[in-house]
Amino acid sequence: MARRKTFKPVDEPKKAKPAETKPSAGGNGNGGSPAAPEPAATPASSVMPDDLEGLRRALLEAESRRAELDSLNERLRGEVQRLRVEVAELRAQVDLVASADPVSGAVNRRAFLDAFRREWQRSRRYGRSLSVIMADIDQFKAINDGYGTEVGDRILRLVAQSFRKTARASDVIGRYGGDSFAIVLPEADLQAARRVAERLRKGLENAVFEHKNRPILVTSSFGVACSEEGDPEPEALLLRADDCLYQAKRGGRNLVVDEES
To answer: Choosing from 136, 138, 179, 258, which is the catalytic residue?
Structure first.
């Protein structure tokens, strides 16, 4: 005979007990007076007297530091300006040394030609006169042979110094080669350039050159030319001045010959 199955009854879930309500302050749990609100927090921006004094000290320190930095900045600006002037002066000295002929002290041939071409372009642009003087020291080979190259180099320096002393401030004097010098005269017509050449000739003729207490007579011949509208290139002006110089040397030396002579 089959056995009858038995089933255990399922336990019902236990119900959670309701949370007990504590009586509020001033009342009981059965509806007393409501709780008093908590005091509000102090705002962060509120500053106590001690904090204000600290901020004032910090402000004074910051202002003092700023004043120091302003003063330092001003000194630095002055130093930078001084250095700029010093750099410009040194650069000018470097350019001068690089462009100078080491024997005579006049500008070398390359620097002279650069200056001459700049003045040529400027004269063409603004329609101004431009003249050139070519000069050779008379009998310079005899001086070199008779007194030696050391004395000859000294003569070259003295001639360049005499020319610089007599020429105009705007004139550029260069050693063109050997015993030859060239002078470019901005904004000078033929008559003005000839007057300068005559002053150069007389200044050199009256200069005193001595070697071992013996005077050395030094003179020079000059050729003068002025630019013309038909000149195809600047070198044409140099060639015309050189032609005039050749005529001065053939004419007896210690002379000035221009294109209208």
So the answer is: 179
